[in-house]
Write a structure and sequence with these properties.
42% of the residues lie in helices and 7% in strands. With 456 residues, the protein is of the alpha+beta class. The longest helix is centred in the first third of the chain and has 25 residues, at 65-89. The protein binds calcium ion.
C-alpha cells in the first residue's frame, strides 16, 4: 500500500463518463483508466509577478531556493488576504482558521505544483505515454493478499458489518473491499497533513479552484470539532482517513456509527465502514442487486453494445446467447432488471454484464478497472471467488498519440468517440467496433497495433 501515497504527477486522466469531483485519483494504474477530477484546469495567472522572475521560473519546473522564500511570503499573504475572507464568509471562525494555519508552510514535494509566475506543465508527455494492457492492474498476488486479510477482518468485525448492512443495504464484502483497496484496511500510513496539502494545492497547483473548495471544506470539518487540524491526516492528494474521502465527501457522507459523537474516519473502524456504506447508498446503491458478472459473449454478438446508456433487461442479453463464464445461471430475481455490457479491453479481455451498482462503485473512483477490482475482491471475500477467467490479452505496443489518431479518424467519419483524449473509453471502444463491422472486420472494440494502419 505504501506506494499509493507517494506523490506522482501527470497520471490523472479524464474518462469518458462525467467525472464526479468526489475524490482525486489515488491509484497508480495505467493513466487512461482513471481521472475523477475532470479536465485539469489551466491555472490562471493569479499573481502579478515581475516579468524577470517569470522568465527565470519558466526555465525551471520548481522555483529555486531564493524565490521559494518569496513564494512562501506570497503564500502567507494569500492566507490572510485572499483565503481568510472567503473562509469567514463560509462561516469559519477566526480561532479555528488561525489554529489550522499556525506555522503552515508550503509543501514543495507535492506533484502538479505551479508556483506563481511559472507555466503550467505541458501535456505533451502524456501523448507519448505507452499504452499498456489493463491486465497489470489485477495483480493476483495483491488481490489474494487483500482477500485473505479482508476475510479475516470481515469475521472480526462481523457484528458491526451486519449492523452497517442493515442500515445502508450495502454488502459487507463490498465495504471491506473498498476499505482494503483504499487504505489497506486502515493500516496504510497517511503521512501528510491534509491542511498543508490542500492549502499548498489551493495556492499553487494545476487545479487550484478544486483544492480551494476542498480546503474550505476541511476548515468546516475542523470547525465542527470532529478532528483537530494536526490529527487530520491524508494522502498526498488530500484524501482523508481510512475511506480516503476528500473533505467535501466527508461533509456529505461521513457518519458517526460507534456513537461517540464524532465522525472519526481516521481511528474508528465502525465509523469508517459505515461512512463507506453511506457514500454508496447515497450514490444510488441498489440493495437487491450485485455488481455484475463475468460473461462469455458468443461469436457473432457484437461487443459494440456496451455502455451505461445502452441498458437492457438481463434476460435480453441472455437471449442473445450471453452466459455467465462460470456456467451458473443468472439469478432469476435479476433477469428483468436493467443491465449493461462492459468490455474494458474489448474482446482482448474479460467481458461483463454489470448492474447499476457497478456505476455506483465508479462514483467512488471513476475508473472501470477500479470498480472491477472492487467487485472481484468483494466476490473473493464473500464467496471465495478467484481471478477473472478470461485473460487480458496483448494489444501490442502503442502510444496514447496512436489512440488519439484513431479517435480523430473515427470522428472524421462521423462516429461519437466521447472525449478525443487518447483514452479508449466505452464510446471509443463502441465506435471502433461499429467501424470494424462496417468495414468487414470482426469487431474487437479496442485499439490495437494492427488497426493503426487501417484506420486513418
Ligand atoms: Ca464515532
Amino acid at each position: 500500500m505504501k506506494a499509493r501515497f507517494r506523490p506522482r504527477s501527470g497520471r490523472e486522466r479524464q474518462s469518458e463518463l462525467p467525472t464526479t469531483n468526489r475524490r482525486p485519483p489515488m491509484t497508480g494504474l495505467t493513466s487512461w483508466t482513471s481521472g475523477r477530477l475532470g479536465k485539469r484546469s489551466i491555472a490562471r495567472s493569479t499573481v502579478a509577478i515581475a516579468a524577470a522572475l517569470t522568465s527565470l521560473l519558466l526555465s525551471a519546473p520548481i522555483a529555486g531556493a531564493a524565490s521559494k522564500a518569496a513564494v512562501e511570503q506570497q503564500f502567507q499573504a494569500w492566507l490572510v488576504k485572499d483565503l481568510w475572507p472567503e473562509a469567514q464568509g463560509a462561516g469559519i471562525s477566526r480561532g479555528a482558521f488561525d489554529k489550522a494555519m499556525a506555522g503552515l508552510k508550503l509543501n514543495w514535494d507535492l506533484p502538479d505544483l505551479v508556483p506563481p509566475g511559472s507555466a503550467p506543465p505541458k501535456d505533451q508527455k502524456q501523448s507519448q505515454a505507452e499504452f499498456s494492457s489493463p491486465g497489470s492492474y489485477f495483480s493476483e498476488k495483491r488481490l489474494q493478499g487483500l482477500a485473505g486479510t479482508g476475510r479475516s477482518l470481515a469475521d472480526r468485525h462481523a457484528s458491526t458489518l451486519r449492523k452497517v448492512e442493515a442500515a445502508y443495504g450495502v454488502p459487507g464484502s463490498i465495504i471491506v473491499a473498498i476499505w482494503g483497496r483504499e487504505s489497506g484496511f486502515g493500516g496504510a500510513k497517511l503521512p501528510y497533513s491534509a491542511v498543508e496539502v490542500l492549502a499548498t494545492k489551493a495556492f499553487m497547483s494545476t487545479r487550484k479552484d478544486l483544492f480551494r473548495r476542498e480546503l474550505i471544506s476541511a476548515l468546516h470539518i475542523i470547525e465542527g470539532g470532529d478532528i483537530g487540524a494536526t490529527e487530520m491526516k491524508g494522502s498526498w492528494a488530500g484524501a482523508l482517513g481510512q475511506p480516503q474521502f476528500m473533505p467535501t465527501s466527508y461533509l456529505k457522507y461521513a457518519v458517526d456509527f460507534d456513537g461517540d459523537g464524532h465522525r472519526d474516519i481516521w481511528n474508528s473502524v465502525p465509523d469508517s465502514l459505515a461512512s463507506i456504506a453511506n457514500y454508496l447508498k447515497k450514490s444510488g446503491w441498489q440493495a437487491e442487486r450485485g455488481w455484475g458478472f463475468e460473461v462469455a459473449i458468443p461469436d457473432g454478438v457484437s461487443c459494440a453494445q456496451e455502455g451505461p446508456d445502452r441498458a437492457k433487461p438481463l434476460s435480453d442479453w441472455a437471449a442473445q446467447g450471453i452466459t455467465r463464464i462460470s456456467d451458473k445461471a443468472f439469478p432469476s430475481k435479476e433477469l428483468s432488471a436493467s443491465t449493461m455490457m462492459l468490455v474494458p479491453a474489448g474482446t482482448h479481455g474479460p467481458e461483463f454484464l454489470v448492474s447499476p451498482n457497478f456505476y455506483v462503485l465508479k462514483e467512488y473512483n471513476n475508473s472501470d478497472l477500479y470498480a472491477l477490482f472492487i467487485g472481484n475482491l468483494a466476490d473473493r471475500i464473500a464467496y471465495g471467488g478467484g481471478a477473472f477467467k478470461a485473460p487480458f490479452g496483448d494489444v501490442g505496443k502503442m502510444l496514447r498519440s496512436d489512440v488519439l489518431a484513431m479517435q480523430k479518424a473515427l470522428v472524421a467519419k462521423g462516429y461519437d468517440v466521447g472525449n478525443v483524449d487518447g483514452l479508449p473509453g466505452f464510446k471509443t471502444r463502441r465506435a471502433l467496433g461499429d467501424w470494424q463491422a462496417k468495414n468487414g472486420l470482426a469487431p474487437t472494440c479496442f485499439p490495437d497495433a494492427s488497426l493503426k494502419g487501417k484506420l486513418r
